[in-house]
Design goal:
With 261 residues, the protein is mainly α. Helices cover 82% and strands 0% of the residues. It has one domain. It is globular.
Length: 261
Amino acid sequence: MIDIGYIISGFLVGLLVGVTGVGGGSLMTPLLVFLFGFKPAVAVGTDLLFAAITKSGGVLVHHGKHQSVEWRIVSLLSLGSLPAAVTTLYVLNHFAKIGKDVTHTITFSLGIALILTALALFFRARLQKIGKSTEDHQPGRFHHLQAPATIVVGLVLGVLVTLSSVGAGALGTVALLFLYPRLSTVKVVGTDLAHAIPLTAIGGFGHWQMGNVDFTLLGSLLIGSLPGIWIGSHLSARIPERVLRPILASVLMLIGFKFVL
């Protein structure tokens, strides 16, 4: 049965995602664990498929309308993230088969990912400024390191997102802003979205095979989130980002420490 509580939660998270641009995982997964009492593994698995579906619409807009996806960067990120995601799923499945409880690993990873996301929100502007300053004073000096650094970022995201469903949005965006400071914001967002789709899809499919996806929950969240994202994106121009981001980052930091401690 479709649950009205899940639909409302999906709408509220979609609204915040539309306004702030922060990925739904950092908001949705803790909500499912703390408010509705889902096991962390089910919350992560369901949210990964949720992210893959919702982000697909965003990429269609960015690629078709704005032409803002840098496919070379997407390929470099995927070289690190997709093998890392498959390896992480294999390890989780292996531990599940031999009867080891992976709840603590997923919960701890979720906490770490939320804390890192909060830090990324706090220091996003500063990191971008450092990247631009380095590029201005020493143009091209670190250009040869961009490709390997991008692959390493992808690898870290692959592990973190598969374990926690958090990080593909905020952490990926901040990493790209630092590594490619001359890339426009719309291209950073479009590129990050395009990379997140195969990563969350692989992660979600792997968790589905392990029985960690609740499809009734997934359908309810989508019913609420899609109009929420649409309304939030229209409200975003009216609500100052400098007010919302620190509040959101503080909340994520507190939730992250609750998972870790």
